[in-house]
Every structure is written in C-alpha cells, then in structure tokens.
Amino acid sequence: MSTCDLSLPILKTRHTARIVIIGSGPAGVAAATRLLEQGFQNVRILEAENRIGGRINTIPFGDNVVDLGAQWCHGETGNVVYEKVKDLNVVERTGDIDSSVKFIRSNKQLLSEELTKTLMPLAEDSMPDESEEFEGSLGDYVTNKFWQAVGKLPNVDRKIATELFDQFKKSECSYEGSDTLFEVSGKGDYEDCKGDMLVHWRDNGYKTFLRLLMNSKQDQPEDLGVLNGHVELNKRISQINWEGAGELRLRCWNGELLTADHVICTVSLGVLKEQHASLFVPPLPAAKLRAINGLKLGTVNKFFLEYTAPPMPKDWPYFNFLWLEKDLLELRGSKRFWLESVTGFHIVMSQPRLLEGWINGEHARYMETLTEEEVLEGLEWLFRKFLPFDVPHPQRFLRTQWHSNPNFRGSYSFRTPLADELRTGPWDLEAPLVDVCGKPRLMFAGEASSKTHFSTVHGATETGWREADRLNEYYSRSTKSSQI
Ligand SMILES: Cc1cc2nc3c(=O)[nH]c(=O)nc-3n(C[C@H](O)[C@H](O)[C@H](O)COP(=O)(O)OP(=O)(O)OC[C@H]3O[C@@H](n4cnc5c(N)ncnc54)[C@H](O)[C@@H]3O)c2cc1C
Asked: Which residue range(s) make up the domain with 440?
C-alpha cells in the first residue's frame, strides 16, 4: 500500500496493539507505565540485564544503599522527578556544598581559603550563562575567559591558578560526561531546572523513583507494581527488522523471534553507536545516523570505599586534588597515570562511613580494565600522596564500569562541535520512523533524545512519556478517522 487510506477500518486498538519497549531504564519504565495508564494492554519491556533500572542502579552497600548510576535529582522547578516526589518525604536538599570543598595539592598543602575565594569565582564565572550560545567548544570559551580574568588580577600565582583551573575543568567534565571540555559544544540547549541541583534520596536511593512510577508495593523490594508480568529480563535484542509497513520482527540474542506493531527503543547512545549497523534492518535513515555519530556518550565512574568508622576528619566532607606540575609529569610517566582524572572524594550523604570518589573520561575507561585490587592500590597511593593524615584500609571497595558493559557503553550524553557541524542533535534521535499513514512503527526514547534535559533521569523519563503520548495520540486520531 503506497498511499494512506483512512477510510479503511483500523486493524489495531489499544487493546490489541503489540508494543515492545527495549530497555527498562527510566525511559522504558516511564513509557510502559504511561501506556498502561492510557489503556494499552499488550505492553512488553525486554531488558538485556538481569535487573530493571538501567543507569539507575541502587544496591545495598554500607549501612543501607548506594547508587552506582544516577544519584541526584538535578533541580526542582520543571523537574518531573522532583514533581513526582516532592511531597512524599523521600528526598532531601543538599544545599551549598561548595563552601565545604577542600582543595589539596600534591605536596599535601591545603589551598588557602583566601586563594580559593579569589580563584574559584573566576573559574565559575568563566562558564557561559545558560542562554549564551557561541561557536566552537566550551573548552575554548572557558579557557579564554578564565585567563583573561586572571590577567586582570595583580600578583596571582599562575601555577596555582593552573592547578585549580585544571581541577575545575575536570569537575565540569564530570557534569558534562565528557573527556575534555573541548569536545563539548557551545550550543548546548540544556535547560537547568531551578532549585537545589543535588536533591538526594536520603538512604533509599534513586530506585525509589522507579518504584513510584510502577506503584510497587512498599513492603516488597522486588515488586514491579503495574509492570508485573510486563517485563522480561535477560532478553537482549540483537536485531530489529523494521522493513515494510507491517509488523516489526525482533531477534533475541538466543535466536528467539518476536513480533510487534510498535517498538520503542530506549537503548543508550553508546549502544546505538556500537551496534546500530547490526541492530537495525534495514539501516537507519541518514539523519538518525548523523545524530548517533555527532552526539557523544561520555564515561563517568564512581568508587565506593567502606570503612569501619568515618575515615575523614569532620571538616573534610569533600576534597578535590590539585596536581603540582612536576608531580603530574612524574605521574604521567608511571603505571598510575590514570589517577590524573580522579576528580575528588566526598562522604556519602547519610553514610558517614563511606567515601565516594569520581573519575571521568579516557582514564575512567582505562581504570575499568584494571583489577579491583589495582584500582584500590592506586587510590590508596593517591590518599598517601595528597592527604596530610592517614586513611585506614577500607573493609570493602567497589568501582563502576559503565563503559565496559555492552548494554550501556558509557554514562551520559552531551552535544559536541561535530554535532553542530553536522547540524544534528537530539531531535534527529527522537524522530520516529513512521509508515505512509503516519503510524509510528519504530520510536526512540532515552536521555540522549531529550532536547533540553539530556544526560539526566528527568530527561529520560520525559522521553518515555513523550513516546507513549505519541502512540496514544496516533490511536486517538485513527479511532476518530475510522468513525467518520
Ligand atoms: C555514573 C552515573 C551517574 C549519573 N548521575 C546522575 C544523576 O545524579 N542524576 C541524573 O539525573 N542522572 C544521572 N545519570 C544519568 C542517568 O542515569 C541517565 O540519564 C538515565 O538513567 C538514562 O535512562 P535511559 O532510560 O535513557 O537509559 P538506560 O538507563 O541506559 O536504559 C536503557 C536500558 O536498555 C537496556 N538495553 C541496552 N541494550 C539492549 C538490548 N540490545 N536489548 C534489550 N535491552 C537493552 C539496558 O540494559 C538498559 O537497562 C548518571 C549516570 C551514570 C552512569
């Protein structure tokens, strides 16, 4: 059929349409729960991992839980996660932590409060305003602005300014998810939700949000609520055949074949980058491929160290590392070179016996290839090198490996100058593949397809709802036209 004949009776209804959602991260869970709410009945989530949640992964550790992936609700106003939980007494604001951050140099010298107060505002002010757009990379922008500002100050020690600025850039890369700020576009359309940027889940973790979406039973930790019977774990999809105008055919990693009328694909940008050529038959359209190539999924990893007692003095809740030039050069020539990208450590909220550390970029990917023992040995060396007091050996240690996992291949997405060059962005990732009647057959959700809230859980959730609403609207339209 080459034209769309709306006088034909519609064959499928909300009761009979078979919808397959690939992935059970926040985008997949949001899509599925909303579709069920809208009256769709045949909704299946197929998940490659042996658990739901995707990049939300709350696990028991220490005295309660830690989050290996998403940890904070970034902002309040206009944040769909915060909107859902704000009155339920499950989250808490973190407030100002900047004033408690200590900057410690590789010669164990603490950066003075006076210098911190002089230099940090210059680094922070070097970031563009949210509404500001410019050509080139964020790295170019902040570097120019920071050094211009430093140049106007008399008697600033440029070596220390360099150390602090290097550390500032590392922290910003951790927010962006990038290896360097030079690969982040100046045209970011990200819109901050106002309010506390680090709203946290007290001692219950981010999975609380998924449980609320699913309406899980309070006293049953594994209950999937309204998604009971709709989720299949260990179901990795290896091929999505969307040829023609009829049903889509999916192949599972174990050879099992499935069919569906609509597929919502929520796999990460990293999975799309690595697997699109084999995953989709026929290949995806050029605009979609431009987005997959132009956008990037960076790597941010965490370390958790558990001690028998709080390991840090009370006034050291948060500390970042500043490398002296000579120590950095020495480090770069050693087997511990990857430690350069460890940003800092802090005590975990509600868990004073835990230290949490962060590493990002190329060195984070390298760290994933080391054994746990090698990683811990490196971190303990770092503590001895920088800290003016002893830190005991932890009783338990873990690190994340988001890039090595073929179901993720990274942490969160950002816009690059290449995307600008290709004139592509999340909108191309979002665009559904429809038939001649406008029926959405293959749809895309997931954080990287969010125009304004990419890289976050609230962004991912919005994209899941967006695709559910797209289908709902299609069925509302087709029901009306068949009644004419
Ligand atoms: C270390 C880290 C820290 C973060 N911190 C925060 C934070 O503090 N606040 C915040 O808002 N966000 C944070 N994020 C980002 C946030 O976790 C993600 O933006 C969000 O979870 C993405 O959700 P999603 O549904 O788009 O994708 P995902 O959560 O990745 O879900 C996709 C699912 O698809 C599955 N899948 C992949 N391939 C297949 C296949 N072939 N077949 C079947 N299933 C497949 C995956 O297993 C996964 O479960 C963090 C992420 C990381 C990694």
From this structure: 18-55+202-296+419-483
Number of domains in the chain: 2
CB of 303 within 6 A of ligand 1: the answer is no
Cα dihedral 392→398→404→406 (10° resolution): -170
* pLDDT given for residue 9 in this prediction: 47
Average pLDDT over residues 44-50: 98
Domain boundary among 346, 366, 401: 401
Nearest CA to ligand 1 atom 15: 456
Residue 136 pairs in a beta bridge with none
What average pLDDT does the segment 137-153 reach?
Answer: 95
Angle between helices 158-176 and 138-151 (to 10 degrees): 150
Q: Is residue 305 domain-resident?
A: yes
Percent of the chain residues topping a pLDDT of 90: 90
User: Of all atoms in ligand 1, which is nearest to the CA of residue 402?
Assistant: 53
pLDDT at 177: 94
- The verdict on the CB of residue 69 being under 6 Å from ligand 1 is yes
Classify burial at 198, counting beta carbons within 10 Å of its beta carbon; exposed 0-12, middle 13-18, buried 19 or more: middle
CB of 236 shorter than 6 A to ligand 1: yes
- More confident call, 460 vs 4: 460
242 and 218 share one domain: yes
Confidence of residue 132 (pLDDT cuts 50, 70, 90): confident
Kindly give the distance from the C-alpha atom of residue 454 to the centroid of ligand 1, in angstroms, as a whole number.
11
Report CA(22)–ligand 1 centroid distance (Å).
Answer: 12
The answer to whether the CB of 412 is under 6 A from ligand 1 is yes
Average per-residue pLDDT in the chain?
94
Q: What is the atom index within ligand 1 of the atom nearest the CA of 30?
A: 25
What angle (nearest 5°) sits at the alpha carbon of residue 363, between those of residues 361 and 364?
65
Most ligand 1 atoms within 8 A of CB, residue of 233, 403, 412 to mutate: 412
* Domain boundary residue, one of 401, 433, 449: 401
pLDDT computed for residue 1 by the predictor: 42
Predicted local confidence at residue 477, as pLDDT:
87
Query: What is the distance in A from the centroid of ligand 1 to the CA of 233?
Result: 16
